[in-house]
């Protein structure tokens, strides 16, 4: 939440001339309700089931950029689907962000039900608990603090087009933050239609 998956995904799709899918948006269309309404009326479990279905559809049918909701990786079968996608050469990008940067972005926002109450404390707790999942799943990590969505999109492009060991743009070699379960090249195909998933980045 607030790492910029939706914003950066939009920029990246524009840059590459492809379309953006966003799992939250797909859930809202399928449910005919907002994410906040689904949480309030049906609960988080129902939201996760809708989200899992949206992720599966997007991975199967979408050739472009996919922005995930930050909790999409909590569903074991969504996580497994993303692992298969990455194992087949897809790029899964962890947009990393710290609490100070995120405070300026989403902490006053009421559209994210999991941040109700002490939003900063909730965000920090969620981010810490999910970080191991994000780092295990991601093929690339890009730090977003102090960068505009356009700047982050350029860094994502640079990261996924780089060869060999995945040195992220802030200079931290990929293997210092991630026990990578797969070791495939993650170049964007020349036709420019690769799906780049952003598994939250951070919550
Ligand atoms: N790099 C950034 N710098 C400043 N604000 C940003 C940045 N990325 C996103 N935002 C703002 O933060 C809010 C959340 O961004 P969003 O893309 O919805 O994040 P996510 O999808 O990861 O929750 C939006 O208001 C957006 O305009
Ligand atoms: O991290 C989460 O559990 C959530 C993140 C949200 O998406 P963003 O990460 O795009 O804000 C949205 O799916 C929902 O509010 C739950
Ligand atoms: Mg989003």
Automatic annotation (TrEMBL):
Protein's cellular compartments: Cytoplasm
UniProt record, GO biological process: amino acid biosynthetic process; aromatic amino acid family biosynthetic process; chorismate biosynthetic process
Keyword annotations from UniProtKB, A to Z: Amino-acid biosynthesis, Aromatic amino acid biosynthesis, ATP-binding, Cytoplasm, Kinase, Magnesium, Metal-binding, Nucleotide-binding, Transferase
A molecular function GO annotation: ATP binding
Residue ranges, annotated region (Disordered): 163-203
Catalytic activity line of the entry: shikimate + ATP = 3-phosphoshikimate + ADP + H(+)
Role this protein plays: Catalyzes the specific phosphorylation of the 3-hydroxyl group of shikimic acid using ATP as a cosubstrate.
Name used for this protein in its record: Shikimate kinase
UniProt source species: Cellulomonas marina
């Amino acid at each position: 939440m607030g790492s910029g998956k939706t914003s950066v995904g939009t920029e990246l799709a524009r840059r590459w001339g492809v379309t953006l899918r966003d799992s939250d948006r797909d859930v809202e269309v399928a449910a005919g309700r907002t994410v906040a309404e689904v949480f309030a009326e049906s609960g988080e479990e129902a939201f996760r089931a809708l989200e899992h279905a949206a992720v599966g559809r997007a991975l199967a049918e979408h050739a472009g950029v996919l922005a995930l909701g930050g909790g999409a990786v909590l569903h074991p079968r969504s996580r497994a689907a993303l692992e298969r996608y990455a194992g087949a050469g897809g790029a899964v990008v962890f947009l990393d962000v710290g609490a100070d940067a995120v405070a300026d972005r989403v902490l006053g926002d009421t559209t994210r039900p999991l941040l109700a109450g002490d939003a900063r404390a909730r965000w920090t707790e969620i981010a810490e608990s999910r970080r191991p999942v994000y780092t295990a799943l991601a093929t690339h990590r890009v730090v977003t603090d102090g960068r505009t969505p356009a700047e982050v999109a350029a860094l994502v492009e640079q990261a996924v087009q780089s060869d060999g060991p995945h040195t992220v743009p802030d200079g931290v070699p990929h293997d210092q933050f991630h026990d990578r379960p797969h070791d495939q090249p993650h170049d964007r195909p020349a036709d420019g239609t690769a799906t780049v998933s952003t598994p939250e980045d951070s919550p």
